[in-house]
């Protein structure tokens, strides 16, 4: 239920995002019509069409991308005709006559002579608008689409995406009700209904042109990340901390609570009981330990950390989890890392084993390739922390990175409740370096960008993205938060693979750090590359995985830190050129 509420609110927030602008002309062009017979069918068409194609894009293959592309072309043509019809009553009559005749024949056949095809026409316009609507992928939509990709086609996926679309159409409905009253007042006071109609027609045609030129996913996407991202993140944090039975942040902040002045009584934490801890069964393999069970862990306080090794948010959390495991091991804390893969390469156990070694992780790691532990906890996030007390009860959870002091205080409370005589201590401050260093949140203006067509957005190459087929791409100067390919690439659902040497990727970003998840060729042969920033060698702004001249080598599939701005953070143009073929590129992340 909580995820449904989050999805609905995320959809409703799209009315504040510039990405909604291209479809507003289509919506307001119907604002004068009957709300029940015109507005509702149109909004239903938008919601249903978005839900269907978003589901196919999240779980389908290249055929889904191609089908949606053909649908967009048809929708652009239909809405262009609609815009022209608003400009001229004569053209409107000519275009609508076949539809009216068909509707009349249907009504006569069914005996409903007084019915009108207006509802059906509005629904068709809604379907066309839904095919063109590309909402900006903020934190909430990213969560919904990630869940759809992981869980596949099921009722939960359908309801989440439909609920997101319902939230968006609700805010549009409110806007249309207000807009309809404004238009009606203007017509009564000024008598310019024909001019209003023509202005709306011009706006519809302008919207069609903007979408056909790709401005809806280019220029507007640059403006949208900062406009709603903070609101969406606040919604996630507020609702998720209340999802399992209480305001956990308040409980943890209260810290030690003694029931009375009697110091001989056992300490009892103020953390609420959220239920019985889920099962840890289902891992395909365990690293650093024999398989652990909830029963065998009774009497211990257990921290369960869901992570995946190429996730930048997880990487920045690892130093804290590693330090907690070391600091509180002798006090009765058991840390279990549950590795739930996001990409296919993260399902390879050897890759995970190497990452565990690279991160110096000594605590047990359950490899949850089938997401059985993930689903048992009803988890939806990387990273996510769950604390289980000595009685096997779930007492605390936190989603995402951050709030480390709060989590450590909860660990201390549950250890004392379990009988530890440890003294309260200040939270740890690990000496993190490289990609493990915390993000510069004040200066991030760029969000995670996926390169595989399944979740790609803001693609800026001069050629359209071709799914599962080799194609030569070119890119000039990408706008802020856009990216593009150059050279011959085959773009798959999760990654793009370079077919010939001397191909590259360009993006313009605004953040202290830029990371790119990369892998060598399918044969494992290393790939050499060179990075430039604003057309020059990075110098002191180079990341941990390249030198000052921008040179680096891809030897394993993982996250590579390529840029760390050493001075003031500003928007920069990043280019990476691969000297060898076969590289596989997955996603940009920033910090």
How would you describe what is shown here?
- By secondary structure, the chain is of the alpha+beta class.
- It has helices spanning 2-13, 24-28, 35-59, 62-87, 89-110, 118-132, 139-151, 155-190, 193-212, 219-240, 248-254, 312-328, 349-358, 372-376, 404-417; strands spanning 275-276, 285-287, 301-307, 333-339, 365-367, 384-388, 393-399, 449-450, 470-473, 483-491, 496-498, 503-509, 513-519, 527-533, 551-554, 558-564, 572-578, 584-590.
- The strands form 2 sheets. Strands 8, 9, 10, 11, 12, 13, 14, 15, 16, 17 and 18 form an 11-stranded antiparallel sheet that branches.
- Helix 4 runs antiparallel to helix 9.
- The longest helix is centred in the N-terminal third of the chain and has 36 residues, at 155-190.
Q: Could you say which structural class the secondary elements and strand pairing correspond to?
A: alpha+beta
Give the biggest beta sheet: 11 strands, antiparallel
- How far apart the termini lie comes to 32 Å
* Contiguous helical run count: 15
Report the C-alpha radius of gyration, rounded.
27 Å
| Low-pLDDT segments | 61-65, 106-116, 216-227, 241-265
- Binned, the helix content reads 40-55%
Number of beta strands: 18
Binned strand content: 15-25%
Q: What is the mean predicted local confidence, pLDDT?
A: 78
What gross morphology would you assign? globular
């Amino acid at each position: 239920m909580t995820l449904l509420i989050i999805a609905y609110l995320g959809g409703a927030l799209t009315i504040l995002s510039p990405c909604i602008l291209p479809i507003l002309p289509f919506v307001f062009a119907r604002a004068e019509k009957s709300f029940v017979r015109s507005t509702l069918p149109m909004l239903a068409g938008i919601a249903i069409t978005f839900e269907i194609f978003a589901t196919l894009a999240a779980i389908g293959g290249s055929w889904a991308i191609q089908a949606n592309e053909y649908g967009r072309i048809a929708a652009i043509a239909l809405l262009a005709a609609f815009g022209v019809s608003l400009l001229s009553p004569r053209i409107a009559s000519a275009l609508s006559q076949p539809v009216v005749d068909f509707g009349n024949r249907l009504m006569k056949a069914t005996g409903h002579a007084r019915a009108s095809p207006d509802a059906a026409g509005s629904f068709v316009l809604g379907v066309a608008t839904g095919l063109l609507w590309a909402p900006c992928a903020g934190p909430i939509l990213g969560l919904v689409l990630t869940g759809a990709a992981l869980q596949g086609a099921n009722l939960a996926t359908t309801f989440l995406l439909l609920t997101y679309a319902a939230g968006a159409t609700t805010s549009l409905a409110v806007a249309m009700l207000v807009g309809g009253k404004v238009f009606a007042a203007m017509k009564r006071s000024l008598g310019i209904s024909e001019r209003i109609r023509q202005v709306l027609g011009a706006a519809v045609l302008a919207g069609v042109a903007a979408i056909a030129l790709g401005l809806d996913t280019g220029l507007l996407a640059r403006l949208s990340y900062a406009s709603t991202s903070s609101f969406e993140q606040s919604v996630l944090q507020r609702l998720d901390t209340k999802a399992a039975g209480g305001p956990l942040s308040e409980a943890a902040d209260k810290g030690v609570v003694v029931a009375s002045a009697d110091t001989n009584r056992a300490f009892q934490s103020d953390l609420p009981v959220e239920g019985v801890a889920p099962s840890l069964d289902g891992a395909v393999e365990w690293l650093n330990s024999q398989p652990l069970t909830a029963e065998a862990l009774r009497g211990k306080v257990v921290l369960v950390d869901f992570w995946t090794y190429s996730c930048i948010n997880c990487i920045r959390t690892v130093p804290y989890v590693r330090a907690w495991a070391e600091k509180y091991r002798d006090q009765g804390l058991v840390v279990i890392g549950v590795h739930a893969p996001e990409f296919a390469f993260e399902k390879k156990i050897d890759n995970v084993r190497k990452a565990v070694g690279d991160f110096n992780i000594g605590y047990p790691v359950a490899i949850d390739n089938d997401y059985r532990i993930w689903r048992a906890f009803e988890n939806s996030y990387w990273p996510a922390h769950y604390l289980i007390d000595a009685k096997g009860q779930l007492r605390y959870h936190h989603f995402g990175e951050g709030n480390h002091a709060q989590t450590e205080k909860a660990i201390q409370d549950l250890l004392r409740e379990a009988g530890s005589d440890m003294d309260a201590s200040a939270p740890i401050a690990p000496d993190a370096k490289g990609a493990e260093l915390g993000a510069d949140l004040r200066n991030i203006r760029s969000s995670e960008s996926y390169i595989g067509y399944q979740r790609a957005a803001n693609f800026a190459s001069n050629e359209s993205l071709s799914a599962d087929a080799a194609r030569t791409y070119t890119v000039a100067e990408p706008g802020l938060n856009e990216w593009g390919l150059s050279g011959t690439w085959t773009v798959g659902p999760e990654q793009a693979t370079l077919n010939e040497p001397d191909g590259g990727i360009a993006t313009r970003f605004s953040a202290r750090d830029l990371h790119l998840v990369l892998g060598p060729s399918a044969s494992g042969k290393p790939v050499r590359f060179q990075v430039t920033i604003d057309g020059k060698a990075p110098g002191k702004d180079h990341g941990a995985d390249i030198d000052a001249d921008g040179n680096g080598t891809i030897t394993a599939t993982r996250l590579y830190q390529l840029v760390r701005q050493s001075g003031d953070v500003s928007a920069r143009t990043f280019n990476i050129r691969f000297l060898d073929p076969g590289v596989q590129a997955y996603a940009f992340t920033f910090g």
